[in-house]
Give the backbone structure.
Amino acid sequence: MSSEPQFLSFKGLKQYSPEDGWGQVNAILQSHAQSTPSAPSQPAPHFQQSFHQPQHIAPENVPTLTETPDTGESSGPVFDPLINELFEQLRVAPSDELTQTWRTIAAEVNLLTQRMALQRELKDRLQKLDQDLVELRGTILSHLSDVQQAADQQLTSARLRAEVSALAQTKLAAKLTKNR
């Protein structure tokens, strides 16, 4: 534990201890150094204890996520000044050539994505159009077949009428020549 005080000596750093809850690192290290490892100060929790009752209550001086700590003159800054500088650097966008190149690449990738989506849409429309054309060709061929059957039937009827007319003419001519 000789390296812990050096590592855990950051200002504002909190540590959780099952015995003490949340607290300052230095205070917890001092309490561990003073306490004897013979027996715990608190009795062991019972298993019949209600699940809704908290076993350890956080100290009042520890801020929660919904609270903002008071930054008065008496309390020092919670964060290192270098962290604030780092956050400022992260907020300001760099304006170097590499950033501009990446922005150009991002714009081109966006354009490529849009064009590929348009290409997929056009392919889908073309496939639907091809399917419609195949169906239309089938319908036209079906109608042409119906027209061909009707024309064949009319041709057959016309031939039959022509044969009947020719036969009637022959018979009538034979009767007329015979009666004379």
